[in-house]
Electron transfer flavoprotein subunit beta (Paraburkholderia franconis), 249 residues
Amino acid sequence: MKVLTAVKRVVDYNVKVRVKADQSGVDIGNVKMSMNPFDEIATEAATRLKEAGKATEVVAVSCGVPQCQETLRTALAIGADRGVLVETDAELQPLAIAKLLKAVIDKEQPQLVILGKQAIDDDAGQTGQLLAALLDWPQATFASNIEIGDGSATVTREVDGGLEVITIRLPAIVTTDLRLNEPRYVTLPNIMKAKKKPVDTLKPADLGVDPSPRLKTLKVVEPAARKAGAIVPDVATLVQKLKSEAKVI
Ligand code: AMP
């Protein structure tokens, strides 16, 4: 069984992003970029399937600027066998990414495709679902456990108020939730080995996809600044302020 994972290059989760002065978006110049955390979980899940003898090959795919190569190298260091870079400087929105991934999937014919449930930069949470619709494949979103059976997968999903267990027939799309696994620490020897693994580069035109954006960002603004707190000398003053100023009691 071939498994394909989709890995996005995003601003590292530790970076506090700033909105550009013209409010056209977030300033990503000179900030640390990393693999989207949910995609690390997806790559770890695929690698564990290979280590358990359930998968024969893991292919990681990233769409975007040439530097997405680095994201693919991280996926290869976690355990993917090869990478595919769909290179473009165009602004990519979830529908365009889903179309690009579909074109790669048509060529690669994987049995299982694992994506993150959401990219931490755009927070869209759409790509996996759009991809399943374009392929007309079953999907299991927000997975916290994946068991591979004979031509099927049993997936535990994190839903409001509990867990839901569903069985889907393969080929299928799965999106990862936080509790699916804890990705391994990428070691130096594995980073060195990853350098020798193959990465193919394609352009959207090679895949017959027009990635032009369909949505226009009108404005991006910083969240309202929180007012500074105040230290009160005693409980009596606190109660009095909650009554007269905050008017909550
Ligand atoms: P989103 O719908 O943007 O929240 O992204 C959900 C998931 O789609 C991510 O966790 C990735 O697995 C995948 N994805 C989104 N953008 C890209 C990209 N540029 N390249 C590869 N995979 C992507």
The mean pLDDT is 96.
